[in-house]
Amino acid sequence: MLFRSISFQPPVYHCRRATKHFILDGNLEKEFWQDAEFTQDFADIEGEKREKPRFRTRAKMLWDDENLYIGAELEGNEIWGHQTERDCVIFQDNDFEIFIDPDSDTHQYYEFEMNAKNTVWDLLLTKTYRDGGKPVNGFDMHGMRSAVHIDGVLNDPSADNRRWMVEVVIPFSAVNECAKEQRSPLPGEFYRMNFSRVQWKVDVKNNTFVKRCDENGRVLPEDNWVWSPTGIVNIHYPELWGFVFFAQGDESYEIPQDEKDKWELRRLYYNVNAYYDENGYFPERIDEMMDDYPYTIRPVYTPAKHTFEIVCDSKDGQRELAIQGDGRTYEYPKR
């Protein structure tokens, strides 16, 4: 199962304050981005069990009181795109994708996709697909702006194609309804985020990029390269996304212990749901669900006919951390 092959080691990124004037043109090689470090290179979504991506991808971020600024560099000579309608299925082309869970509860999170033509798709996920979530395609990130810069020529395999770069400006006002206290972040706070690059295998025919097919004429599956691997070809596991801390200056932050404890609750959530899938009902006790993982929490488990809740104390003893059957995590004042 997923939880047996994945450890809780999400990447951490310190998003620094923007200090220079911003001009949106898609090009990251300008003064505005000098204060931002790149993430580590993207890896295959399944992690180390898959080959290293054949093209390098990395991202960087800055913020100010109004906006989150995201830039990405997508290297490679296969630069093409055809989708032109907003909110169409962008990943039918090669694309760059952004995922944001502002309060780290794995519900009500945002997805954004764009191709090399700067066609965009923005949507809200009510919760993860595994928990019955639905995409809200009518959602728009009001005030969002994006641009693409191409070192090469779009849709021309004969050109000297090197990379394409993107810039995305997301106003906090467009996403803070799903944030803690429904406000913009403060220094030291974090969003859970991930980035993805979809890259199709292609051949060149008549100076045109054409998706590669197998011997039966079926298009080969796309590659998925991400900042924070989830272990399976499904990025909708927000509990495994990276931590983006908002920094005032050069300070750094570590993943809070409560978030590590939520991961232990999440493992138990996986186990309880696996038991239900096998038996058709939830277990009566939690101790038989605690596998050989070195748990540090002392969970209290409450099953019901159609759901359950697992609770543990926060490390400061002032709150309770909880996960429910629909996969959402909560924090309560101590009862």
Describe it.
The protein is mainly β and 335 residues long. The protein has two helices and 19 strands. Strands 1, 2, 3, 4, 5, 6, 7, 8, 9, 10, 11, 14 and 15 form a 13-stranded mixed sheet that branches. The longest helix has 23 residues. The protein starts with a helix and ends with a strand. The model has no long low-confidence stretch (mean pLDDT 95).
Rg over CA atoms? 21 Å
| Overall average pLDDT | 95
SSE succession = HEEEEEEEEEEEEEEEHEEEE
Give a count of the beta strands, DSSP E runs of length 2 or more: 19
Largest sheet: 13 strands, mixed
Feature tags:
335 residues; mainly beta; 13-stranded mixed sheet; 19 strands; 34% strand; globular
Write the layout of secondary structure elements.
Layout: H1 2-5, E1 12-17, E2 43-44, E3 57-63, E4 67-75, E5 95-101, E6 107-114, E7 120-127, E8 135-136, E9 145-151, E10 163-171, E11 190-199, E12 202-205, E13 208-211, E14 223-226, E15 242-246, H2 257-279, E16 300-303, E17 308-313, E18 319-324, E19 329-333
Parallel strand pairs: 1-3, 1-15
Antiparallel strand pairs: 2-14, 3-4, 4-10, 5-6, 5-11, 6-7, 7-8, 9-10, 11-14, 11-15, 12-13, 16-17, 17-18, 18-19
Summarize the structure.
This protein is mainly β and 335 residues long.
